[in-house]
Design brief:
Blueprint (H helix, E strand, L loop, with lengths): L2 H23 L2 E5 L2 E3 L5 E5 L6 E9 L5 E9 L6 E2 L17 H4 L2 E2 L18 E9 L13 E8 L6 E5 L6 E5 L6 E7 L9 H7 L4 E5 L5 H6 L5 H13 L3 E11 L1 H12 L7 E5 L11 H9 L6 E2 L5 E2 L24 E6 L7 H15 L5 E6 L16 E5 L7 E5 L4 H24 L13
Parallel strand pairs: 2-9, 12-13, 12-14, 14-15, 15-18, 18-19
Antiparallel strand pairs: 1-3, 3-6, 4-5, 4-8, 5-7, 8-9, 10-11, 11-13, 16-17, 20-21
Length: 457
C-alpha cells in the first residue's frame, strides 16, 4: 500500500524508533556497592530504558591466568523503564529466576576457552574487577562484537581495608598470616586446603576480613618438601599452631582449625590426637575421618592409593575418587576416634560429592560421637545438590576441572567434583554464613553476629 497514509505511518514509526533510541542512549546502569567483599551482595539497577524493553545484563571477568569468564541474563524492563537484578526475574541466560548474585556464581569460561578451568583468585591484594554491561535485546553470544548501552566496573575483594598480609617462613613453615584491621588481639585460625597443595590464600584473607587472624598453610608442597622430597609430619602442624599461639596479636586460648578435603583429614587427626594443639573449635568441609591413625602423611597417601582399583571414570574420562575410602572401615585403627573429640565440630557435607565419601563419613562420625556421648559437640550441614568444592559465596561453580595430584606421582587429570550449579551455589552461600556464625560464637562468644559490610570496615 502506498500514498500519504503509508508515508504517515512510516514517519510515525521512524519518530517512535528515534524516541526509543534517544531513550536507550541515556540508559543508566549502577551497581551498589561497586566496591565490596567477595561475599557481600550487590544490587544491579538498569534505569531509563523504554518500558517493556528486552535487555541482557552481562558480566565479564578476566582472571589472572588470562582466561575470560562471562555470565548473562535476560530481563524485561518494567513500566517505569527499570530492571532490578535483585528483584526481577531472569528469563534465561546462564541463570534463571530471581537471583541477586547470579551474575557472579554463574560465571563460566567464554566459548572457545581451554576446557575444565576453575576460577581461583591468586593475588588477594588486588580485587576481582568485573565489568557489568547492559545490551539491547536478549543476546546469547558475540558480546565482544556488540556495543553495550551502558557498562560499569565493580570490584570484589577478599581483603578488606586494613587487613594485613604477612608471609611466614620461620621454623620451616610455608604460610601466610592475615591479620584483621585494628590492634587486636584476635582469635586465630589455621586454614588448610586439600590435596592439590600450594599456598592458597583467598579464604584466609576473607576470614581475616571478618575478624579472624587466619594462617593459610601450605603443607603438601611447602619449601621444605620441595627441597628434601619428604612430606611433612605431624610436628609441622603443631609448629603452625604454636606460631599462632605465640603471636602477640592472637588470643592463644581461642584458636580454631578449618580444613577442606584432605585438609579435613589432617584437621581431625590433629584435633583428636595432638598433645600440643588445643583447639577451641574446628570446621571440616567435604572430607573424611578415614585414615591409618599411626601412619605418617606419606603413608596415608600410600594407603589411599592401594585402593586405586576403585577409581571410576565418567564417559568423558573424568576421575571419580569417592570410592577409594569405601566402605567406611570398622577397624578403629583406620579412622579417627571421634569419640575423643573435645571441641565443637561443624561438619559441612556435599551430598553429591564425587571426590570424597563425605556423606558416608559424616554418618559414621555422627554415630561414633553418639555412642561416645559427645554428639552435642557436632553440627552437620548437609546439602543435597552440592559438589566437593564448597568455597566462599559466589565463587563460580566447577562440576569438573583439571587437577594436579601431589602423591605418589604428580599427574594432571580432570576430576569430577559433583554438584549442580544452583544447588551448589546455594550451599556455598548458606554454609559460609553458618561457618562465620559458628566461628564467632566459639571464638568470640558472639551468639548473633551481624553481616559485615566492606564499607563499614
Amino acid at each position: 500500500m502506498g500514498g500519504p497514509q503509508a508515508e504517515l505511518q512510516t514517519g510515525n514509526k521512524a519518530r517512535l524508533s528515534f524516541r526509543m533510541d534517544r531513550k536507550q542512549c541515556c540508559v543508566k546502569l549502577s551497581v551498589e556497592p561497586s566496591r565490596g567483599l567477595m561475599d557481600e551482595k550487590f544490587v544491579v539497577l538498569v534505569q531509563n530504558v523504554f518500558p517493556g524493553s528486552q535487555l541482557t545484563v552481562y558480566a565479564l571477568y578476566q582472571c589472572e591466568g588470562g582466561y575470560s569468564w562471562e555470565s548473562f541474563a535476560h530481563y524485561t524492563a518494567n513500566a517505569t523503564g527499570t530492571v532490578n537484578v535483585s528483584e526481577d526475574l531472569s528469563l534465561g541466560g546462564t541463570y534463571s529466576g530471581v537471583e541477586p548474585m547470579g551474575l557472579m556464581w554463574s560465571l563460566r569460561p567464554v566459548p572457545g576457552s581451554k576446557p575444565w578451568l576453575r576460577m581461583r583468585k591468586m593475588n588477594v591484594q588486588t580485587p576481582m574487577e568485573v565489568k557489568i554491561s547492559v545490551y539491547q535485546g536478549h543476546q546469547t553470544e558475540g558480546f565482544v562484537d556488540k556495543v553495550p548501552l551502558a557498562g560499569v566496573v565493580v570490584e570484589r575483594w577478599y581483603m578488606a581495608p586494613g587487613v594485613r598480609r604477612i608471609p611466614v617462613t620461620e621454623n620451616g613453615l610455608t604460610a601466610t598470616l592475615f591479620l584483621p584491621s585494628g590492634p587486636g588481639p584476635f582469635p586465630g585460625l589455621l586454614d588448610l586446603w586439600g590435596g592439590g597443595g600450594k599456598l592458597v590464600e583467598y579464604r584466609s584473607a576473607l576470614l581475616a576480613s571478618h575478624g579472624f587472624a587466619s594462617l593459610a598453610l601450605d603443607y603438601l608442597t611447602p619449601k621444605v618438601t620441595m627441597e628434601t622430597g619428604k612430606m611433612v609430619d605431624n610436628e609441622y602442624f603443631e609448629t603452625a599452631y604454636r606460631f599462632l599461639e605465640q603471636h602477640p596479636q592472637i588470643l592463644s586460648s581461642r584458636i580454631a582449625m578449618m580444613g577442606l578435603s584432605f585438609g579435613t583429614t589432617v584437621t581431625l587427626k590433629t584435633a583428636v590426637y595432638s598433645k600440643v594443639v588445643k583447639l577451641r573449635c574446628i570446621v571440616c568441609i567435604s572430607g573424611s575421618h578415614v585414615q591409618p591413625i599411626d601412619a605418617t602423611m606419606e603413608q596415608t597417601f600410600i594407603a589411599y592409593n592401594q585402593n586405586v582399583d576403585k577409581t571410576r571414570f565418567t564417559e568423558e574420562n573424568h576421575v571419580i575418587w569417592r570410592d577409594l575410602l569405601l566402605p567406611i572401615p570398622t577397624d578403629p585403627s583406620l579412622k579417627v576416634d571421634m569419640g575423643r573429640l573435645k571441641c565443637p565440630l561443624l561438619l559441612v557435607v556435599a551430598e553429591d560429592d564425587q571426590n570424597w565419601p563425605a556423606q558416608e563419613s559424616a554418618m559414621d562420625m555422627k554415630e561414633m560421637m553418639k555412642q561416645a556421648g559427645n554428639s552435642h559437640l557436632l553440627t552437620v550441614l548437609s546439602y543435597p545438590n552440592a559438589g566437593h568444592l564448597i568455597e566462599p559465596p559466589y565463587t563460580p561453580f566447577s562440576r569438573a576441572s583439571t587437577f594436579r595430584t601431589v602423591s605418589p606421582t604428580p599427574q594432571m587429570v580432570v576430576v569430577l567434583w559433583g554438584g549442580e550449579t544452583v544447588g551448589h551455589s546455594r550451599a556455598q552461600e548458606d554454609a559460609w554464613r553458618k561457618m562465620l556464625v559458628f566461628l564467632k560464637e566459639h571464638l568470640y562468644g558472639i551468639t548473633n553476629p551481624g553481616a559485615t559490610s566492606f564499607s563499614r570496615l
